[in-house]
Write the structure tokens for this entry.
Amino acid sequence: MDILYKVNELIESQLTNWDLAAINFKGLNLVKTRSLILSGGSEVKIQFNPERIRSSAAKVDARSIQERPCFLCEQNRPEQQRGVDFEDYTILVNPFPIFNKHLTIPHKKHTLQLIQPYFKSMLDLAYELPEYTLFYNGPKCGASAPDHFHFQAGNKGFMPIEEDFKSGRFAKLSGLSNDVAIYTWKNYNRGVITLMSSESAAIVSLFNELYDLLVQSQKDEVEPMLNVLSYFEEGEYVVHVFPRILHRPASYFKEGTEQILISPASVDMGGVFITPRQEDYEKLTANDVEEILNQVCLDSQKCEELIQTLIEKSIQK
């Protein structure tokens, strides 16, 4: 029995037997969504989802983490929560969903949220779950459990970036490096580096080179700030990397009507901004979104410079 089949059975079972998950997934029918067009021409969706307040407002400072039990460790999970084993991971249904099919995939060991040792697992999961997009939030890039390594996954077709990449409207081929096509993005209002190849080992190798370049500019961080999306489609692995420069925008910390409670993570980078408060959903403008992205993301020009460095290193080998 393949993993995808087991996972889809898990979802059906959990929505039947686990009241919390059933209620919250049913609640997605009441979630409000609207669209904005950014100055570069790309669409972003705004989703009003009050159950996501736990993630958006999560306290991720060292003291808060130390004082709460880890909700991803097996011994602390709800009694009704079941999982599917995959290598060193357990695939779980996320009881506070954004997607119609939303998974959380924690490592079986309580180990830090640092992607480099586990990036290959992300590709393996993408291959085994071809109906899903995998995503990774760095410890200061949207992860509400930076103390326990985990991926998440959601059904394909939800985030605008997937169709934007297919269309070729914003992503342009910059070059090749060891069987990996590298794309840069123009007029997308945030920097993105996309890697595509049929060879997972080649993507892992190039991702590690990119990771090392990012380390050089953020030597004081436990890991260079980034979000990652990955999926497997038509025989190709596609990986979108969003280098980050800031955890949360200035508007997150303002008070009163000036506050916008958005803590950007992978799904926001992919084009769906999650607003747990109705007032933010109603007032958010394209200019607000662009300002948030400008503050937290590495810009497209600097991403292009990173890409050229990767290509030059490949030529020199």
Summary: Residues 141 and 306 are 20 Å apart (CA to CA).
